[in-house]
Amino acid sequence: MGSRWIFDGHIAGIGTTSGLRAVVGIWQDSPFGAFADVMVQEPSGHRLLLAPAAPIAEFIAATYSFDEVTVVDVSARLADGILTVDAGPLAVRAGVGGRTFLGSGLRALPRRLAVHPSWLRAVSPLAGLVSRGSRTSGSAGSGRWEYYGVSDLHRIDSAAVAWDGADAGSLAAVRPAVTFGFSSVPPQPSLARVRTTVQDATPRRRPRPGARR
Questions:
Q1: In this structure, is the dihedral angle defined by the CA atoms of residues 2, 138, 118 and 98, taken in order, positive or negative?
Q2: Res. 63: pLDDT tops 80
Q3: 68-71 and 47-51: which strand pairing?
C-alpha cells in the first residue's frame, strides 16, 4: 500500500434509545479486500472498534480514535433492503428505506466529481450546514488526511439492535454525535454509498539552497 488508500462501499449510522450508537462500514473494494468493520460508542462515551483482522484493526485505529480495539468475526450483509450485522457483542437487523432528499441531490452529481478529494475539500464547510456534525474533509490520525465522498443516501427506517445479548432500545437519532474522527454520520439513521480516501499529509517542501524565504 502506498500513501493513498481508497475504500469503496457503504456506511450505516444507527442510534438507539439507550444511547448506544453504531457506525458500520461495508467495504466492497479496499486495499484489504472486501470486509466490514463496526465503530461503537456506548452511552458513557466509550469508543470501541470491532474489526475482522489485526492489519485492518491497526490501520483503522491509526486513522481514528478509540478507547478499545477488538478483533472479532464481523459479518455484514446488505440485501433486499435489509442490513444484517453480526460483530462479536453487536447484532443489528435494520430496514433500509427510501432515498433522502439529500441523497437525490447527491445522485445528481457525477460520481467522479462527488468523490474527488479537491471537490470534497471545497465543499466540506457546507457539509456541516446541510447535515449537522458531518464533514467531507479533515485531518485524521498518524498525520493522515481523509475525504468522504457520498454519492447516495437512504433512510434507515427500523432496527433491532442487541449489545452483549441485551436489547439496546429502539431506533433513534445518532445523538450525541459520534467522536471517532473529524466527522460524524448524519443524525438521522441512514445508509450512505461512499468512497473514503485516506492519504498521508503532503510533506512540507524544504527550501532549495540559496532560495529566498
A1: positive
A2: yes
A3: parallel
